Amino acid sequence: MSDNQPLSNVEDLNTSESRKRQRQTDANSAGNDVEEKNASSAVEPQAKRHKTIDTLFFGAKKPSGAVATGASSSSILPKLNAIPFSMVSYVNSMSDEEKSLLKLECEVMGKSWLKVLKDEIRKPYFLTLKRFLLKQGVHSTEDTPPNVKVYPPPKWIYSWSQTPLGKVRVVILGQDPYHGPGQAHGLCFSVMKGVTTPPSLKNGHSEFLLEAQRLKCHYLQIFAEIKAEYPEFKIPNHGNLSAWAEAGVLLLNSALTVEAGRPNSHAEKGWEKFTDSVIDIVDKYGGANLPSGANREATGFGRGVVFMAWGVHAGKRVARMSKTKHLILKSAHPSPHSFEKGFSGNGHFKKANEWLETKYGADARVDWCSLD
């Protein structure tokens, strides 16, 4: 994976029934739709998708009576892969202002997430948030620092959504993106490759732990815990956790943006309400496409995931989650102030794999040691 590209846009697959409904909707719509791909072509080129989005937003007239195709309005929860979604119909149902404000979401948000969050991002609070970000210089994927004083760069704000919803098995909750240059890329506790990891981290666990605390880098202290649980773990020379995201670990911050050099500067702007909705969606559909064994009827619905809630803030966010459906793992935050007060020795990574194997089989385990 290129260090300068977001995660591959790998989405959940539609059932034949939903694809049929989508084709019927598209037949009455202008322009070319961005469709779900089959398993052999699940990775969709970003350039092609962006070209199609540009056509939708700027090149086609809105047909009369266009209605967005979305989740069933029935009180019965539909299966994830049976939820129809047409990008053409969705965009054509927007007002001109919505098209301007939500272009980024339609361009880069993973489609398995967009189809279940499509109504959420049109709510007044989210549009207010987008107006705020617009004033901050966040317009499109072409915006990059230093022109934009917001991290991560816009094209990576929704990197977390490239973990397909139906394949989410673990959720790790963060709070705020890193606010220094070249660090944040849309995944909590993760930094871009190229952020230097000191050579002394190769000297053994004790020295590693001391250095992690001195540098105040959360990912280094997470590595220290993994090393304690899995002694065979070879500490990488970077802090990029994209491999976990590709393996079904949702790395989600409370606020998805931050002003350069100002931690928590975008708190209470609306992101928390949005990411709470993301957590609620995981409750409904997280792991929907994981192996179901003999119980095939369970496929398509969320049957439980592992939540890792580190610190008081994260603990509050999962308080409403069912402890019988999910595995809720709480501990102190992996910060220098609390690492030795409950994070170190929490055993979360092994506990997560034991629970996943019991519930979904050995293939559901996460290889925490593979980060290259």
Automatic annotation (TrEMBL):
In the UniProt entry, which residues are flagged as the active site? Answer: 176
Which residue range or ranges hold the Uracil-DNA glycosylase-like domain?
A: 161-356
InterPro entries xref list: UDG_fam1, Ura-DNA_Glyclase_AS, Uracil-DNA_glycosylase-like, Uracil-DNA_glycosylase-like_sf
One function term, GO molecular function aspect: uracil DNA N-glycosylase activity
Q: Its family?
A: Belongs to the uracil-DNA glycosylase (UDG) superfamily. UNG family.
Q: What's the domain of life for this entry? A: Eukaryota
Primary location recorded for the protein, binned into one broad class: mitochondrion
Single GO biological process annotation from the record: base-excision repair, AP site formation via deaminated base removal
**What's a Pfam family this protein contains?**
UDG
Q: To which species is this protein native?
A: Panaeolus cyanescens
Region feature Disordered, mapped onto this chain: 1-47
Which terms are listed as keywords in the entry?
DNA damage, DNA repair, Hydrolase, Mitochondrion, Nucleus
- The entry's protein name is Uracil-DNA glycosylase
**What's its catalytic activity?**
Hydrolyzes single-stranded DNA or mismatched double-stranded DNA and polynucleotides, releasing free uracil
Q: Function, please? A: Excises uracil residues from the DNA which can arise as a result of misincorporation of dUMP residues by DNA polymerase or due to deamination of cytosine.
| Compartments, as annotated in UniProt | Mitochondrion; Nucleus
Which residues lie in Polar residues bias regions? Answer: 1-16
Q: Does the keyword Hydrolase apply?
A: yes
Report the EC code(s) recorded for this entry: 3.2.2.27
Q: Name one GO cellular component term.
A: nucleus
